Amino acid sequence: MTTTPSTRAPRLLVIAGSARIGSLNRQLADLAARRAQALGAETTVVDLRSLELPVYDEDWAQAHGKPAGARRLRDLFAEHDGLILASPEYNALPTPLLINSFDWLSVIPAEDGKPSGAAATGGKPVGLLAASPGALGGIRALPIVRNYLSTNFAMVVVPEQLALPLADQQLTTPERLAKPDLDAVLDRVVASVVRQARWRIAGA
Ligand SMILES: Cc1cc2nc3c(=O)[nH]c(=O)nc-3n(C[C@H](O)[C@H](O)[C@H](O)COP(=O)(O)O)c2cc1C
Question: Do residues 40 and 10 touch, judged by C-beta distance below 8 A?
């Protein structure tokens, strides 16, 4: 059956702000992705480490050109309708991996019929998640990520968010979080992103 642009499934990127093997945030992002799929979305996992982005350095860019991984990230955003993002906080800030990746994205220009990095993200919904083995769950970085993505990347950050404390005790099965009330918050974050993405597709 042929689908029209207004009825196709929402396509969501799924990114973790930690590339660590066994990352709690990757596990949370994957759980969120499965929830999004259950709501009819298609999901694409992006491993930020695989983009092989150097630490942002203008002189490096002058010498080597902008890194291919940043263009790859731009292309991925251009091909998708929204984002599910799970990131730890490092000393109350978003991780260097996350910020470095998006900083590179922000300097990719419009070219070859493709949008700039910022235009590729603009108007697209994002749901914020954070996980930590600590008691705060990474909640201190979430307002910063919210501001960063909404201000600089014109993303529509949905109001619902989840900071998951004691995450190693919550992510004990692949199906759900151990605490039902936190699992219900995860549901609400994912549903909000999928809903916004559908609205965006319908309005396109
Ligand atoms: C440099 C550094 C700083 C950290 N700062 C915080 C912090 O401010 N708040 C917190 O809850 N956990 C903090 N942690 C602990 C991380 O939440 C923990 O390592 C977590 O497992 C990282 O996420 P991941 O499992 O997805 O890799 C920090 C870890 C590192 C390496």
Answer: yes
| pLDDT tens column, 152-198 | 999 999 999 999 999 999 999 999 999 999 999 999 999 999 999 99
Quick one: which atom of ligand 1 is closest to the CA of 165?
Answer: 11
166 ligand 1 Cβ < 6 A: no
139 Cβ below 6 A of ligand 1: no
pLDDT single digits (tens) 81-125: 999 999 999 999 999 999 999 999 999 999 999 999 999 999 999
**Hey, what domains does the chain have and what are their CATH numbers?**
11-203 (3.40.50.360)
Q: Which residues, listed in sequence order, are joined to residue 84 by a DSSP beta bridge? A: 14, 127
Q: Report whether residue 94 contacts ligand 1, using a CB cutoff of 6 Å.
A: no
Nearest CA to ligand 1 atom 14: 90
3-state secondary structure of 5: coil
